[in-house]
Structures are given as C-alpha cells and as structure tokens.
C-alpha cells in the first residue's frame, strides 16, 4: 500500500470520498427514504482500499466484528419494523472507519446527528409537508424518519474532529 494512503496526510484521500458518500446517503434518504446498496458497497470498498491494508490484523478483525454485530442486531430491529435495512447496512459500513478508541466519540456524534435529523425532518414536514411530493421525507405520512441524514451528519462530525 502506498505510504500516501497509510499516512496522516493520506487521511484526506479517504475523507473526500467518504464525505461524498455520506452526503449522498443523506440526500437519498431524504428523497426516497432509502439508502441504495451501491452506496453501502462503495463505502465498504473505500474502507477496503484505504484503511484495511494499513491496519494491524487485530484492529481489522475488531472493526469487521463490530460491523457484523451491527448488521445482525440491526437486521433484527429491521425485522421488528424499527429501522430501515439501508440504515443498518450503511451504519455497519460506516463503523468500519471507527477505531476502537473512538467509539465513545462516534456514538456521541451519532446521537447528535440523529437528533438533528429528527429536528430537520419535523421542521421540513411542518413547513412544507405535501403528500404528493416527490421527496419522501415531505410525503411520508407514516411518521418515518430518514436515519441516513443522522448517519451522514454523524459521519461528517466524526471526519471533522
């Protein structure tokens, strides 16, 4: 693996595309209330190319194990109708970028991001709710929330710290 990718300066090689993927996931969830598998796979591929080769085996195994736990528990929550499957898969993919020592910070960012997403969603619906809108966040009458917005905000917050 080239030193540029594994160095501190190489972090920007990951930050720019990851930031774009986070923004696309948030926009997709606002627009269609879904996060496409292509964004999840692109996020995992970005990790595989930019992070995985630079990690110690134990750290890599830890990150993959955490992602698998998120998928398994998240799919149980999806089966119970509590969360969307795309949200679960994207969170698992995003978790690959979080070192073990940074989980408290990431969970804090996730909490803040989800709260901001709730506020944004409720604000948008209060101002511009339209059952005929092509933006699902405005047309959703079931009260669902686009968690991808919270995941995107959490990821951006984590990238900027």
TrEMBL record:
GO terms for cellular component: membrane. The keyword Transmembrane applies. InterPro entries: Prepilin_IV_endopep_pep. The keyword Nucleotide-binding does not apply. Keywords: Membrane, Transmembrane, Transmembrane helix. GO terms for molecular function: aspartic-type endopeptidase activity. The chain crosses the membrane at residues 35-53, 60-83, 103-124. Coiled coil: none annotated. Residues 19-111 form the Prepilin type IV endopeptidase peptidase domain. This is Type IV leader peptidase family protein. It comes from Roseivivax jejudonensis.
């Amino acid at each position: 693996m080239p030193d540029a990718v594994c160095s501190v300066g190489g972090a920007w090689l990951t930050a720019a595309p990851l930031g774009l993927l986070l923004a696309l996931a948030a926009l997709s969830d606002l627009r269609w209330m879904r996060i496409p598998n292509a964004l999840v796979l692109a996020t995992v591929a970005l990790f595989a190319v930019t992070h995985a080769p630079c990690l110690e085996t134990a750290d890599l195994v830890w990150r993959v194990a955490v992602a698998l736990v998120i998928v398994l528990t998240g799919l149980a929550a999806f089966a119970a109708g509590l969360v969307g499957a795309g949200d679960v898969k994207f969170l698992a993919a995003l978790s690959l970028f979080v070192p073990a020592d940074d989980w408290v910070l990431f969970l804090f960012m996730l909490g803040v991001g989800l709260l901001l997403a709730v506020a944004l969603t409720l604000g948008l619906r209060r101002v511009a709710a339209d059952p005929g809108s092509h933006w699902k966040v405005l047309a959703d009458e079931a009260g669902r929330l686009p968690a991808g917005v919270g995941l995107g905000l959490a990821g951006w917050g984590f990238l900027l710290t």
